[in-house]
Amino acid sequence: MAWHLSVQVDRDSVVPLTAQLQNAIKDMVEDRVLHPGARLPSSRQLAQDLGLSRSVVVEAYEQLIAEGYLDAVRGSGTHVTRQLPAGAGEASLLDPRPAPEARWDLRVGIANLSNFPRQEWLTSYTKVLQNVGRDGVDYPPVAGIAELRNELAGYLGRVRSVRTEPGNIMVTAGFAQGLALLCSSFQHQGIHELAIEEPGHNGQRRFILDTGMRPVPVPVDEEGLIVEALARTGARAVLVTPAHQFPTGVTLSPARRQELLRWARETDGWVIEDDYDGEFWFDHQARPAALQEGDPERVVYAGTTSKVLVPGLRLGWLAIPPRMFPLMERVRSRQDQGSDTLTQLAFADLMRGGLLDRHLRRVRSRYRSRSEALAAAVREHLPDARLNGSAAGLHSYALLPPGTDEAALVQGALRRSVLVRGGQQFRFGGPPGRPGLLLGYGSLPLTGISEAVAAIGAAYEELKRG
Ligand SMILES: Cc1ncc(COP(=O)(O)O)c(C=O)c1O
Q: Which of 88, 104, 269, 278 could bond 452 through an S-S bridge, CB–CB 3.0 to 4.6 Å?
């Protein structure tokens, strides 16, 4: 019986064919396109169907068997496993939860409630409740209430050099909703591929896939996204984190910025700038302006309160190129009826009264001391590692010597009650990068940083001794 499998590989991609095939099958299993127990074609058959060498398929199958996605039964071929590996199929933007118990949690995206300015929020929210009129409790405009869009336009210009008008701002439920709306609007324009950075945010990659777009990984180096590689993909839209690349921490170099903006002009393409932690730049002089400043007609700027305040508010914003705005409004009005008005009014009040600026100054200095403490702890306890990229945001990326067994180090750290993610978790099947660790310090007390890094250092020394 010649079982058929409908997968595609791209010979011009920088991603090796084995990795492409592996990812495609993994996605089909996780998305339940391939059901548990489904039979796959033989490696010989699939190689022939796809015009690939058989060794490419054999290697992909072997890797998927090792990862627990497929089973090979002698005499009855290769099947999708009946029990998927833990964590498979998480169609979430978040790191899988629940996580193992650990004293120190260095994962990124962990909310730090103690940084939430409760008193200020309470004051603004109470003021709103006392003064809100009929308009404030009726359905809001889908793009957001005027008060907040006005405040945001001023704030984004002042703090991030974004060039926009209140009428081009859309308030969203965090970047997650912004991304979903953008993916819909691209598809309305006949764009079905969205280039993403690799390494990058695996949750976002799956999220994009679930919107019906094809995420196309493009490698990142010390200068940020490799624009030449982007151009080779043929994609017309790209999602980037130019100020502080997620997860490597590098900043898109001035030359690459220009190249990327040129690419957008020449391909009539779109750039989404995910400025998730742009407010937390510790060296004020070095802070790069938003990429959007270079071409407000082609760059969609995205911001969020998830790092600035807390993710639970589910509040974000897009500064949208004027010619894309009407489509985004149409797409939005078909999906929901706008964001919670009272939260929007309270946040506008927080901004208007200067309370947000004051809060930002306070937490920025808190995060700066954590970033410095982490750098000092790495120098002391993990001297073979090198911190990569810019001192900004709520995480650092430590590069480890080539050949370090990253997975064993992560396990060793967990045995010492430190939960940390290895760089491989942020790869999508492209060539394995240099081993590394993503060290989130946003929710750690200052005193915990040295203890956590010391535990990782001890795990590293144990690994080195063999
Ligand atoms: C790379 C990146 N972009 C954006 C966000 C924010 O997403 P949201 O606004 O939906 O919470 C996060 C998470 O905090 C992130 O890690």
A: 104
- What does the angle CA 60 – CA 65 – CA 67 come to, to the nearest 5 degrees? 95
pLDDT at 94: 63
Tokens, residue 258: 């220009």
Strand 224-225, strand 237-240: pairing: unpaired
DSSP per-residue string spanning 288-334 = PPPGGGG-TTTEEEEEEHHHHS-GGG--EEEE--TTTHHHHHHHHHH
pLDDT recorded at residue 15: 67
The reported pLDDT for the residue numbered 99 is 66
Spans of the chain below 50 pLDDT = 91
pLDDT at residue 351, rounded to an integer: 96
CA of 204 to the centre of ligand 1 (A): 9
Query: Contact 309/111 with Cβ under 8 angstroms?
Result: no
Q: Tell how far CA 147 is from the center of its chain.
A: 29
Ordered domains of the chain (ranges, CATH):
17-80 (1.10.10.10), 104-114+358-465 (3.90.1150.10), 117-354 (3.40.640.10)
Answer yes or no: are the C-beta atoms of 57 and 43 closer than 8 Å. yes
Contact between 166 and 146 under an 8 Å Cβ cutoff? The reply is yes
The protein residue whose alpha carbon is closest to atom 4 in ligand 1 is 276
CA of 306 to the centre of ligand 1 (A): 7
Nearest to residue 238, comparing CAs of 247, 249, 248, 227?
Answer: 227
118 backbone φψ class: left, alpha, beta (φ>0; ψ -120 to 50): alpha
Ligand 1 contacts (CB < 6 A) are 108-109, 174-176, 201, 241, 246, 274, 276, 304, 306-307, 311, 316
